[in-house]
Amino acid sequence: MRPSGGPLGTLFGFLTKATSEEKERIENELPFALMIFTLMAASGISAYDSWKKMRKLTFLPTFKKEADEVVRQVEVLGKDPLTVMHHRADATNSKLYRNFLGGFVSSVRSGGNIVDYMRSELKTVFELRNISMTRSIERIATLVEAYAVMLIVTLCAYILFVVFSSTNVLQLLANTSVPNSPIMAYLIAFLAMPIISLVFILAAHNMQRSSFPDLKDVYKKAIILIVAIGLPLCLIFFVPSLSFVGKTVGMAEIVTIGLVAISAPLAFQYYRIAKVNYNAEDAVPNFIREVAETQKIGLSPEKSIIQATKRKDYGQFSKFLELVRSQIEWGIPLRKTFENIRQKIRSWFVVVNFAMMIETIEIGGDPTQALEILSEYSEKEREVQINKRALLRPYVILAFIWSILIAVTTTIVALTTYLMSTIVSSSLSPVTAMAMQDQMKVFSIGIILQCWISGFFIGKISEGNLAAGFKHSAMLALTAYVSLVLSQIFLAGAFGISIST
Question: What is the pTM of this model?
Answer without folding.
Answer: 0.78
